[in-house]
Amino acid sequence: MLREVVISVFGLFHPGELEIAPAGPTAIDVICGTDEHTRLEGPARKFRLHAGCRTKGLFSLSIPGRIERTFAGTLSIEPGLTALITMDLEAAVASTVAAELPATTSPSALEAQAIAVRSYYASLPAGRHAYASFCDTTHCQHIRGTLPPDHPASLATQATRGLVLDYRSKVVTAMYSAACSGRRQAGVANSDGYAYSAVECRYCLRRPSAKKFAHARGLCQAGAADMAANGKSAEEILRHYYPGTSLRALARD
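Request: output the structure for the sequence above.
Response:
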């Protein structure tokens, strides 16, 4: 069973510098190479990172003046100031759900999104990037950072813990997009063999989006939110947008 994911973060910004600080009451130890060991206590204590540095715990990672996020997990810095976060799968799922949908979205739409996100993480092989399995951009999936356990995205993730979309005993690399023209695109999009159907999205038929999307396969977030607001369950939403699939739990070690 996949328990952790390795995600490259901030690469879109091509950072010239990275800083780290503790994000909670517990100190963090930053180890760089074999002879540099720095203990940081308190959010005001910041450290400028370079290749070869690593730490673990709850920390704030930033490109000064540009972006700052809080993560829980293990951080390692590779050449080119490539920041890799190794984090718990379920924490990554919750973070992605929060980045994709507003917290005010109906719970069953958040739960459907969580299952789609988890399926995407669980279905793809390692090594898609130079040092990581995934990145934090639309090339893979967005992440927002570590969330509190009572955040709606965290609750949706916990409610669906371990569940993925299955098609012929393979986990589906679940595609999704924000909106569509009212009919989802058909075709085989990934190596999992799942053929997406041109299913009707009634919400977007009533309110067609003016935006152009690179793809409109799988779950439509606008349509899913509308279905959830009208009483549909996460399973019903997923059955509509991914016909022929079923839900199953990830295999345990």
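The chain has two domains: 17-80, 89-249.
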